[in-house]
Amino acid sequence: MSRLNMPDVTAYFTGAASIGASLTLTDIGAIVGIAIAVLGFLVNTIVTYRRDRREQRESDAKLARMKKHL
Question: What range defines the domain where residue 32 resides?
Fold first, then answer.
């Protein structure tokens, strides 16, 4: 893998700038909306996973108490 020289960096930067300049407000809104939806999905997945683990521990503890009393 070779190092990037100044013309390569300039080409990448101008390419990214031209893509950014061509985006309309509608495009940016769609990109932000998709990013928020993906972030919401990930947060919801993590919260659900943690809640399931907590409820499983509670259920196991309740069953252990019930077995102890029998």
Answer: 25-70
